[in-house]
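Support request from a user on the community tier.

User writes: "When I paste my structure tokens into the form, the page sometimes reloads and wipes my input. The last time it worked, I copied everything first. Here is what I submitted, just in case something in the input itself triggers the reload:"
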């Protein structure tokens, strides 16, 4: 059932953008299946990981974040989607990962939440990061996020958000 993927691993893995979107979606599904099987059997999964990184990058840059995130999560490597540099893609990835985290067991959900927090902070989605940090009851991160705010108005807005969510945190008078 994974002949297409096995042939692709043995063949040319260059010019991924010429392969076609549906073909890459097919490969993504087969990679997830084969990765689980190979991991269980103790087979080296590096060829799958290399191809998955290419597919994840392609899917993100072609507005198919769901497939990219699902593939990364299925491979137990959700950090693969964290390297996104474009703020527009990062926002959609954060939204998708938060939505998926609800359906995962606690340790895996915690990994996704940490990724969302880091990405949100790195791309300037401070209010989103703060809401998540408050929901996860991480007061130290809430303080750090407020400290990362660039101006007084933004800090006041976040303090108001924290107050509305009944998260009382010590703040300085600046």
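"...and here is what came back when it finally went through:"
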């Amino acid at each position: 059932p994974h002949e297409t993927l096995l042939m692709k691993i043995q063949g040319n893995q260059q010019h991924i953008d010429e392969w076609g979107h549906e073909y890459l979606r097919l490969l993504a599904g087969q990679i997830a299946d084969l990765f689980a099987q190979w991991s269980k059997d103790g087979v080296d999964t590096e060829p799958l990981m290399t191809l998955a990184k290419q597919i994840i990058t392609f899917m993100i840059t072609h507005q198919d974040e769901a497939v990219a995130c699902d593939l990364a999560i299925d491979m137990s490597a959700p950090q693969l989607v964290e390297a996104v540099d474009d703020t527009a893609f990062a926002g959609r990835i954060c939204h998708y990962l938060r939505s998926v985290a609800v359906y995962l067991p606690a340790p895996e959900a915690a990994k996704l939440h940490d990724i969302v927090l880091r990405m949100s902070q790195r791309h300037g989605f401070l209010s989103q990061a703060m809401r998540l940090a408050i929901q996860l009851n991480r007061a130290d991160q809430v303080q750090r996020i407020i400290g990362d705010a660039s101006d007084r108005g933004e800090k006041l807005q976040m303090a108001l958000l924290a107050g509305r969510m009944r998260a009382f945190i010590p703040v300085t008078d600046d």
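Agent notes: The reload is a front-end session timeout and is unrelated to the input. The chain has a mean pLDDT of 89. DSSP finds nine helices and no strands in the chain. Escalated to web team.
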